[in-house]
Design brief:
This protein is mostly helical. It contains three helices and no strands. It has one domain. Helices cover 80% and strands 0% of the residues. The radius of gyration is 15 Å and the shape is elongated.
Length: 76
Amino acid sequence: MLTSRDELLTTHEEFRKLAQEHTQYSKRLDSLTQKRYLSEDEKLEEVRLKKLKLRLKDQMECIEREYRQQYGVNVA
């Protein structure tokens, strides 16, 4: 059985786009955290990416909450 998140990933274009962006930011952040030292630009990028990821997560959760309210679906 699909969770509401799985369902949204397959049926909701905006949710899927947000999830893809979130994954891209996560990968870039992972590459930054692998470095022993960060330049000032990289430190700024790290902060910016964390904020962007959080914004995307909030948007995805809002869409998921609306979906659950509309269809009465619980998250597994």
